[in-house]
Amino acid sequence: MLDVVARLRHVDVQPDAGDDRVAASMAWARKHLAEPITVEVLAGQANMSTRTYLRHFNRCAGTSPIRWLIGQRVQASLPLLETTAMPIERIAATVGFDAPVTFRHHFQAVMHTSPSAYRRAFRA
Questions:
Q1: Using only C-alpha atoms, what is the Rg of the chain?
Q2: Closest CA to 37 of 62, 64, 59
Q3: Is residue 85 part of a domain?
Q4: 33 by DSSP, 3-state: which?
Q5: Containing domain of residue 29, as a range?
Q6: Among 34, 43, 74, 103, which is 20 to 30 Å from 27 by CA?
Q7: Given a cut of 80, is residue 15 above it in pLDDT?
Q8: Would you say residue 99 lies in a domain?
């Protein structure tokens, strides 16, 4: 029994190829935030089935692809709110939200403030 345990300790763990594909799909998504992105699109970018992609993504990121994507879109909006006078509606479209109301809803949920209040804080 000790021999088996000793051999198991020396087994090299190979990185999961799925992790690299998920990481590549995440990098692709960051570059295409303004486009409509679905789980199916991300899975296609990773060359995986949707179900397999969801499993790998959750293991890698600790969240769902859609929640991650919303967070990325909100993060991408921050410099636009901080440094431009671009209308909220245009910022929402630039970072990939279908409607300003959707952007405001998700921004509030992630940042615990409105996009307008966030912008005012950086203008003061």
A1: 19
A2: 64
A3: yes
A4: coil
A5: 17-62
A6: 103
A7: no
A8: yes
Minimal CA–CA distance to 75: which of 35, 102, 36, 115? 115
Positive or negative torsion for Cα 22, 24, 30, 35 = negative
Catalogue the E-assigned strands of 4-95: none
DSSP structural state of residue 98: S
Question: What angle do helix axes 17-31 and 50-61 make, rounded to 10 degrees?
Answer: 90
Helix (H) and strand (E) counts in the chain: 8, 0
Longest dimension (CA), the chain: 69
Are residue 110 and residue 80 in the same domain, yes or no?
yes
pTM confidence score: 0.83
Going from the C-alpha of 91 to that of each of 16, 41, 71, 82, the distances in angstroms are 37, 23, 15, 11
Q: Please compute, for residue 48, the number of CA atoms within 13 A of its CA located in the half-sphere on the CB side.
A: 21
Helix (H, G, I), strand (E, B) or coil at 84: coil
Q: State the total domains in the chain.
A: 2
Position 16 scores a pLDDT of: 56
